Amino acid sequence: MSLTFSQLRDRPEFCTIAAHRMWKAWWEYYSHPLEKVENHLKNDIADAAQFPFGIVAHDDETYIGHCLAIAHDLDQRPDLSPWIAALWVEPDHRRKGIAAQLMSRAMQELQALGYKTIYINAKPSLKEYYPGLGWMLIDQNQGPDQLDVFVRNSDLNVQAR
Predict the structure, then answer these.
(1) pLDDT tens digits, one per residue of 23-67
(2) Which pLDDT tens digit goes with each residue over 88-144?
(3) Considering only the top CATH level, what class is 4-153?
(4) What does the alpha-carbon distance between residue 127 and residue 132 come to, in Å, rounded to a whole number?
(5) Alpha-carbon distances, residue 144 vs 115, 130, 141, 148 (angstroms)
(6) Can you say whether the dihedral through the CA atoms of 70, 153, 58, 23 is positive or negative?
(7) Any idea where the domains of the chain sit in the sequence?
(8) What angle do CA 157, 129, 117 make, to 5 degrees?
(9) What is the pTM of this model?
């Protein structure tokens, strides 16, 4: 596999599959229309000049995963920004360090834009994953999905495993 990481704005052909993965994982349950997710990804993320942005992992034309960098990702914590969000790696490619690489690349981009402190949230089942990559748990049981909130200072490199 020849793994490449690209800005979603440079590879907009991956917007449709990334939107579908986001919808299935986080939005379908709430009856949020797939078209809204795809339009948001194309018009608000991929078309943005610098921020917000998306990073996509791919092997030539094969989508492998993505993550977004956005201003806000949790209604219960509007005081926190920016966020790494919608981190997704295809099931056949998990446990290969791709998620950590996606986060690392997003953090590098955010740091280049002047951001130092970055946030991410996750379901409680992932509580053990993020501290191993240098994220610190700062809040729990947020929102209807009872999400955990983590913080990381981008001056510290995310170690890809």
Answers:
(1) 999 999 889 999 999 999 999 999 999 999 999 999 999 999 999
(2) 999 999 999 999 999 999 999 999 999 999 999 999 998 899 999 999 999 999 998
(3) alpha beta
(4) 10
(5) 28, 21, 8, 11
(6) negative
(7) 4-153
(8) 40
(9) 0.91
Question: How many beta carbons lie within 10 A of that of residue 107, not counting itself?
Answer: 25
| Spatial contact of 22 and 29, defined as CB atoms under 8 Å apart | no
Match 């994953």 to its residue by tokens: 129
CA 52 to the chain's CA centroid: 11
Structure tokens at 137: 């748990």
Residue environment code for 93-104, b if the CB has 16+ CB neighbours within 10 A, otherwise e: beeeebbbbbbb
Residues belonging to the chain: 161
